[in-house]
């Protein structure tokens, strides 16, 4: 059976978790303790960059969430999550990459906003990202039209997290309706962190930020 190495509070892990549930793929859940277990030799043997998620399927080991999503959708044909035409595939991939490369990196600043207010530059970038997604959605049910696809899964594991952290979707009515729609799906219901877990995850992110600041300070001294 396919083994899924992940942490339930990792938004990148949740992309794969949601896809597994949406496609109804049986899997063994392998929760990785990110307080140090990711650096142990056993895990590094399958994930040399010590990141989750990882999928191991027989002799196949796949790291990087976008690659894992592609593997799952091509290997397991039930309930397909990718469109058929080159243009639609390119649009789906574009949306995945915009969320991954443009929106998600601003998550740390949003988590830390209670200690350091968001800069004008960060707020403008968030608005650009959300406006782009609103325009791409354009009153459709999902980013792929009437059918859920991998763009919805990548955006759907990220946008609701920003919303829960205080980023308003009120200026983006199509995105707001889309979020309500996907959050009603069983895969999202099962994988949504509780308020307690969300606060725990925020504290972990803040601790990681402090650790990196200390490391930079130590390097500058040395």
From TrEMBL:
<feature type="domain" description="GST N-terminal">
    <location>
        <begin position="1"/>
        <end position="80"/>
    </location>
</feature>
<dbReference type="InterPro" id="IPR050983">
    <property type="entry name" value="GST_Omega/HSP26"/>
</dbReference>
<feature type="domain" description="GST C-terminal">
    <location>
        <begin position="85"/>
        <end position="213"/>
    </location>
</feature>
<dbReference type="InterPro" id="IPR040079">
    <property type="entry name" value="Glutathione_S-Trfase"/>
</dbReference>
<dbReference type="InterPro" id="IPR036282">
    <property type="entry name" value="Glutathione-S-Trfase_C_sf"/>
</dbReference>
<dbReference type="Pfam" id="PF13417">
    <property type="entry name" value="GST_N_3"/>
</dbReference>
<dbReference type="Pfam" id="PF00043">
    <property type="entry name" value="GST_C"/>
</dbReference>
<dbReference type="InterPro" id="IPR010987">
    <property type="entry name" value="Glutathione-S-Trfase_C-like"/>
</dbReference>
<dbReference type="InterPro" id="IPR036249">
    <property type="entry name" value="Thioredoxin-like_sf"/>
</dbReference>
<dbReference type="GO" id="GO:0005737">
    <property type="term" value="C:cytoplasm"/>
</dbReference>
<dbReference type="InterPro" id="IPR004046">
    <property type="entry name" value="GST_C"/>
</dbReference>
<protein>
    <submittedName>
        <fullName>Glutathione S-transferase family protein</fullName>
    </submittedName>
</protein>
<dbReference type="InterPro" id="IPR004045">
    <property type="entry name" value="Glutathione_S-Trfase_N"/>
</dbReference>
């Amino acid at each position: 059976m396919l083994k899924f190495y992940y942490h339930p509070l990792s938004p990148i892990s949740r992309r794969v978790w949601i896809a597994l549930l949406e496609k109804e793929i049986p899997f063994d859940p392998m929760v990785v303790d990110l307080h140090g277990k990711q650096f142990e030799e056993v895990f590094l043997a399958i994930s040399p960059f010590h990141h989750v998620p990882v999928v191991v399927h027989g002799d196949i080991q796949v790291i990087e969430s976008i690659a894992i999503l592609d593997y799952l959708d091509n290997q397991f044909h039930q309930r397909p999550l990718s469109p058929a035409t080159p243009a639609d595939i390119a649009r789906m991939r574009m949306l995945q990459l915009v969320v991954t490369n443009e929106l998600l990196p601003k998550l740390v600043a949003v988590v830390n906003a209670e200690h350091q207010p968001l800069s004008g530059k960060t707020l403008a970038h968030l608005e650009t990202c959300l406006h782009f997604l609103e325009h791409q959605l354009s009153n459709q049910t999902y980013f792929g039209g009437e059918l859920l696809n991998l763009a919805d899964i990548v955006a759907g594991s990220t946008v609701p997290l920003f919303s829960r952290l205080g980023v308003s979707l009120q200026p983006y009515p199509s995105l707001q309706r889309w979020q309500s729609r996907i959050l009603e799906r069983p895969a999202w219901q099962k994988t949504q962190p509780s308020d307690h877990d969300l606060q725990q995850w925020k504290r972990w992110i803040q601790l990681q930020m402090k650790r990196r600041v200390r490391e930079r300070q130590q390097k500058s001294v040395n």
